[in-house]
Amino acid sequence: MADFTSQTDEQVFVAFRDGDAGAYRELIERYHDNLLRFLTRLVGDRAAAEDLFQETFLQVHLSASTFDATRRFRPWLFTIGANKGRDLLRKKKRQRTVELSRPLKMSEGGTAFIDLLEVDVPSPDAAMDLAERDDLVQQALDRLGEPLREVLLLAYFQRLSYAHIAEDLGIPLGTVKSRMHSAVAAFARSWQAVTKESTSRGG
């Protein structure tokens, strides 16, 4: 079995496209945690995110011949995942009214988005446990419109420049900057709202 440890994602992808099944498994393992967390945050449902993860890598398999291996694999992968998530959210909207208080799933390892995203929001109460904070973060994200939530999550997980995000999503650079500015402000407002509501319920 080939050792892919020292190879880039793009090199591993080329090996997969050339028929190395182990390379495909390597890509899945490399992106399992990050992509699954991204999808969970995007759609607000861990079980649905796991299905989307499988669909994303199935699409990678089906579209392998269309990928330009001189470009970066990660943005392409996350864009496919975002498209799958967007399709699911549209389907949900057609099926039912969006519920802001639907059951939430905690991300793997209990990682709180608020800890990792550098936005100017009030610090969580020290007494708030990690699971509760993670749920509130998901509620705050759920209140953002789909375009804002998508750009915010893509920017965090991919850590791309605005120019790269614009290219990957096929939108103007100015639109990315505008959405990011709006998304950060909206997330801060949502976070304040959900923490206030939580405090009111608790008190």
Please tell me the CATH architecture of the largest domain by its name: Orthogonal Bundle
The strand count comes to 0
Overall average residue pLDDT: 79
For the biggest sheet, the summary is: none
Going by helix content, strand content and strand pairing, the class is mainly alpha
Give an overview in words.
There is one protein chain. The chain is an all-alpha fold. The protein has 2 domains: 1-98, Rna Polymerase Sigma Factor, Chain: A (Orthogonal Bundle), CATH 1.10.1740.10; 107-198, Winged helix-like DNA-binding domain superfamily/Winged helix DNA-binding domain (Arc Repressor Mutant, subunit A), CATH 1.10.10. The chain is globular and about 55 Å long. The protein has 9 helices and no strands.
Please summarize what this structure is.
By secondary structure, this protein is an all-alpha fold. It has helices at residues 9-17, 21-43, 46-62, 73-95, 113-116, 130-142, 146-158, 162-169, 173-202. It folds into two domains: 1-98, Rna Polymerase Sigma Factor, Chain: A, CATH 1.10.1740; 107-198, Arc Repressor Mutant, subunit A (Orthogonal Bundle).
State the main characteristics.
single chain; 203 residues; mainly alpha; Rna Polymerase Sigma Factor, Chain: A; Arc Repressor Mutant, subunit A; 69% helix; globular
